[in-house]
Write a structure and sequence with these properties.
Oligomer: single chain
Strand order of the largest sheet: 1-2-3
Low-confidence stretches: none
Number of helices: 4
Mean pLDDT: 77
Length: 106
Amino acid sequence: MQSEGRAAADSLVLAEITAALGDSISPCDRLAHWTLRWALARGQLTCNRCGASQPTRRAGEPFEHRSACTGSDEHRYPLQELKGLLGHLPGQPVPTANDWQTGRRR
């Protein structure tokens, strides 16, 4: 019974950390948040909350979470989200307003 209480407490702590990283303005924190939510291996993207997976070749399609997943509304295109995060890591040029308007990347 103690292990169940411990697991629930650990889950709450992880949820708080995940929320804090997701709210951060730091690109590295936001990338860490992404990696807590998703697993990417062998051409498959898997939601760490519900276990649903999708081939990476379907990155342009909405991710199909399982029905009870708490992340189903907020993370529809996770690979596109990752692509955006990787473009904003330290050492990368920051896009200007003109770049966003024209769709150009440096």
